[in-house]
Amino acid sequence: MSKALIILLLISPLVGFLINGLFGKWLKGKEKLSGGIGALAVLVSLICSIVAFVSVQDGNILEGDAGILYPWISDYISIGFHVDALTTVMLLVITGVGFLIHVYSIGYMHGDAGYTRYFAYLNLFVFAMLILVLGNNYLMMFVGWEGVGLCSYLLIGFWYEKQSATDAGKKAFIVNRIGDFGFLLGMFTLFAAFGSLDFVSIFDNAEAGNFQQVFGASTLVIATLLLFVGAVGKSAQLPLYVWLPDAMEGPTPVSALIHAATMVTAGVYMIARSAVLYNIAETGVVVAWIGVLTALFAAIIALKQNDIKRILAYSTVSQLGYMFVGVGVGAYASGIFHLVTHAFFKGLMFLTAGSVMHAMANELDIRKMGGLRNKLPITHATFLVGALAIAGAPFLSGFWSKDEILHSAWGSSKVIYIIGLITAFLTAFYMFRLIFVTFYGKSRVEPEVASHLHESPGIMWVPLVILAIPSALIGLLLGVGGHNSWFHHFTEDVFPKAGKAPGNVILFMAISSIVGIAGIAFAWTRYKNRVPSDEPTNALQKLVANKFYIDEVYNTFIVQPIKNASHFLLWRLFDTGIIDGIVNGVATLIRVIGGTLRRLQTGLVQVYIVSMVIGIVLFLAYYLFFS
Amino acid sequence: MLLSIVIFLPLLGVIAVALLRNMGASAIKGIALVISLLTFVISIGLYTGFEAGIDGFQTDAQLYQKLLWIDGLGISYHIGIDGISLWLVLLTTFLTPICILAAWNSVEKGLSGFMMSLLALETGMLGVFCALDLFLFFVFWEAMLIPMYFLIGIWGGERRIYATIKFVLYTMAGSALMLVGILALYFQNGNSFDLITLLEAGGTFKPAMLLFLAFFIAFAIKVPLFPFHTWLPDAHVEAPTVGSVILAGVLLKMGTYGIVRFCLPLFPQAAADATPWIVPLAVIGIIYGALVAMVQPDLKKLVAYSSVSHLGFVVLGLFSQSDAGIQGSVLQMINHGLSTGALFLLVGMIYERRHSRMIVDFGGLAKKMPVFATIFLIVTLSSIGLPGLNGFVGEFKILLGSFVGDAFSKWYVVFATTGVILAAVYMLWMYQRVMFGTPDKTNEALPDLKPREIAVLLPILLFIVWIGVYPNTFLKPMEESVSAVAEKVKVKETENTPAVGQIIINGKTQDTVPEVETATGQLTKEEAQTK
User: Fold this and answer.
1) 8 Å CB contact between B87 and B46
2) Does the pLDDT of residue B502 top 50, yes or no?
3) What percentage of chain B exceeds 90 in pLDDT?
4) Which of chain A's residues have a Cβ under 8 Å away from the Cβ of B437?
C-alpha cells in the first residue's frame, strides 16, 4: 500500500470542504452541485479505502517510517499513518456509511438556507474522522479527536438561530473537553514513560516492560485509565453521556453519521487500538463495568422517552456501552465487530427517523404518529430491519455481534453478563415500543400533516435500502463461527489473543435470541394498540421519564455554583474588591499622607522656627538623658 | 547593521510623519504604513540570515552590533538576537503594520500624533528585545512607556486617565525595583552593563534571591502574573483597539521575555528556589483568569482576563526546566500575540459598527456577517487550543514539558490542564452569545467585513494555520537558544540525575524505540537521592 493512496484518501474530503466552504457563495442555489461535490469527495475516499482494505488483506500493512509524512512537533511527534486491519475496518465504516449519508443528505437538506455550509462541515467531519483512525500516534489521534468534536459542535448547532441547538453544541464540546482533559494527561503519562507517543513504539516497549516507571508499578494503570476518561467523553458513557441526547438538535443525517455510526465510536476504537496497554494494565475491567452500567442506564431511560430521535440517542449510548463491555473484557475484535454492525443498523435507523420527520413536517413526538406503515412502506420496512438487528433477532447483524460480546463477558464476569442480558431485553422492548407506536395502530397524525404524508424521494430511500442490506446480512458474512469467524481472522494480528470463552456457543445464542424475542413480544402486548400516556403514573416512572434528573443535578451542583462563584467571589469580591482595593488603597494612602504633610508647608517663618526649636530641644534631650 | 535598521527605521518614520503632518490624513497614514511594512520586510532578513546552530546570540555582523556609547560608565550600544528574541522581533514588526491598517479610519483626532506614537512604540519594543546592554535595555523599557501612555491616555475611552495612570504606576513600581537590580549587577560585573559577560557569569551574583525578585517582580507585573494583573483589564478596556492589540500582542511578552532572558539564566538557583512559589501563582492565574473571563459582560475584559489565563501557561512552561516546556512558552508568546491580537481586532471591528462591547447587545451576527463569523470562529478555536491551529502546539509543549520536566509536582500540570476545559467554556459561550441566535433590528443592519478589514486579518490567519500545521518552522530556530537557557537552569538539578523523559526529548529519538539503557538505566530521582 502506498502512502500516496492514503494521502488521496485523506485529502479528498478536505478538498470537498474547501470548495464548499470557500465558494459557498457561488454554489448557492446549485444544490445538486454542492451536495454532489460533497458526496463525490467521500466516494473517492471510499474507493481508496476499498483499495487499502484489499491491500491489507494481502498482508501489506503501512506502518513505521514508511507511513511518516513529516515531523510535526519538534522531532519526536510526527504526522504519519498507520494502516492495518483495524484501520481499514474503520475506514470502510466511515467512508461507506459516510458516503450513503452524504447522498441521503442531498435530498434531506433540500431547500435549507445553509446547504453548502452543511456539506462543507460534513466533509470536514469525514476528514477529521479519517485523521483520527489513520494516525500512527496518540497525538494525531487527538488531532482527529478534536477535529470531529469541532464538526460535531458546528453541526449540532447547525441551525444556529435556535437557542436549544447552539446550547446543545456548546454542551457537547465542553463535556467532550472534560474527556479530553483525561486524554491529554494520559498522553503526558505515556510520553513520560516511553519518550514517544508512537503506537508501535509504545506497544513494543510496553510488552517488553521497557519504560520509565513514572508512577511506579501503576504507570500503565494510570495511563490507560486517563485515556479511558477521554473515551468516556467522546463515546458518551457514564457520567459524561449527557451531551449525546441533546446532540439530536442537529440535522438527522448528522445524528446518523456522527452521533451513531462514527464519531461516538472513537472511544471504542481508542481502547481497541491500545489493546496491548489495557491487557498489561488489566484496566479493562473498569472499562467493562462502566460500559455495562451505561448500557443498562441508558436503556432504562429510553423506555420512557417519546421523542423518536432521543430514543435512538439513548439507544446509541446503550449500545456503545456494549462495545465497551466487549473491549473491556478483552474481546477486542467482538467490540469492534459490534461497532461495525451498529454503524449500519443505527445509521439506518437514524436515517429512517429522518425520513419519518421529512414526511411529518419535522414532528419528533411518537405520540403524534401511529399507523405510518401504510403511508411510508419503505421507511417502515427498513426501520424494521434495523430494529430487528438491534434487538438481536436471529441471524441479523446485531444478533452475531451482541452475542459475541455477551458470551465473552460471561467468561469474565457473570454479573456483567446478566446485566447485559437484561439490557438486551430492554433494548428489544423500547425499540419495538417505538415501532408499534410509530408505524402501527391508529393514525394520530394531525389532519393538516396527514394530508401530505408521503414517502421520501429516491435520493433518500435508496440509501435506506442499501444500508438495510448489511444491517441484515453482514453478520452472516463476517460473524459466523464466533472466534473463528472471518472478522476475527482478519483482525487477529492487531489484537492480543483472547482466550476462548467457556460454554456452548449455540446455547448462548439461543438465550440471547429468546431474550430478544421476549422483549419484542412484551412490547407487542403493551403497545400494539396503546399510546404512551402523557403523565407518568408513579414516582419511579417520573424519575425515568425525567432521565433521572441528571442534567438538573449537574446544573445545580456544578454549573451554577461555578458560575456564581466566579462572578461574585472571584471577580466582584476578590478581583475588584480585594486586589484592586489594595492597589487603589495604596494610592489613596499616599495621597492622604501627601495631603497631610503638605499642610505643614504653611509658608509662615515663625512656624518653621518654632518647629526647628522643638526639634533641637528634643534631640538635645535625647542625647543628654539616653546616651 | 540590519538589526539597527530594523530597530530605528520606525523612529525615522516618526520624524517623517512629524515633518509631513500637514499634508493630510492619507499622506500620514500612507507614510506610517509604508515605513512599518518596510520594517517588516527588512526584518525578514533577520530570519533568512539566522544561523539555527548557534546556541548564544547571532554573530553575523548584520544581526549583531556593539558600539561604545558612554565608555567611562561601561555603557555601550550593544544589540543582537538569538532564537528567542528573533520571534519576538518578527512578531512586533508583523503586528505593527497590521495595527496601522486596522486604525485606518478609526482615529478622529490627532492622527499624526497617533501614528507617531505607534511607530515610536515599535522602536521601543524592538529595542527591548534586542538590547544586550542592561542600560540600553532599561532605556528602551522605559521609553516604550511614553508612547503607550499617550495611546491610552489620549485615544482611549472614558476612564482612560485612571487606566493610564494605573498602567504606568504599576509598571514603574516594577521598573524601580529592576533598576536597583541592574545597578547591583553592574557593580558585580566589573562596572559594565554588558549582558554577554553577565550571562557567562550567570549564577554567581549576590544576593541572588533578592536580585532575582527585583527583576522577577518587574516582569511579573508586565506579564501580568496573578495577582499583579488588575491593571490589565482596565488598560485594555480603555485603550483604543490598536493599543489593545499591541498591549496584548507585544507588551505583555516583554514580561515573559524578561524572565527567560534575565531571571532564569542570571539567577538559575534562585529561580529554582522560587519555583515552588511561582508555579502555583501561574496555575492559579490559568484557572482564575479563565473563571473570571467567563463571567465578564464586556468583550474586551473577557479577552483581557483570558490573557491572564494564557500567560499563566507561558510562565508555567518557563519554570519547567525542560526544553519542551520553554520552547512551548516561547511559541505560546507568539501564539498569544497572534490570537489575542486578532481577537482585539475583531472586537474593535464590531465596536466600530455597533459602538458597544457588551455581549448582551449582540446576538445573531453570524447571519448578517458570515465572513466575520468565520474568521472569529477560527481565531476563537486558535485561542481554545484546537489541534491543527497554533495555540495547541504551544500549550501541548508547555504541559508536556512541565509533566516530564519534573521541576514541580505533576499535580500542577493536572490543574493547569483544566484550563483547556475552561477556555472552551468561556470562549464558546461568548461566541454563542455574540454570533448565534436571531439578530435584533440594530444587529440586523450591521455590514460584514470590508476588504481592508479582511486584509488586516488574513495574514494573522495564515500564521495561525501555519504554526498549527508545521510548527517546526518556528521551533527549529529556537531550539539551541532555548537549550542554552534550559541547561543553565537545570545545572543543579541534573548533574547526576537526569529528569524523567529529559534524555529522550533532547536526544531526538524520533519514532524509535528508546534504548534499554535510557529507559531503565536512568536513575529515578528517589533512587539517586538514596544513594
Assistant:
1) no
2) no
3) 71
4) 160-161, 163, 166
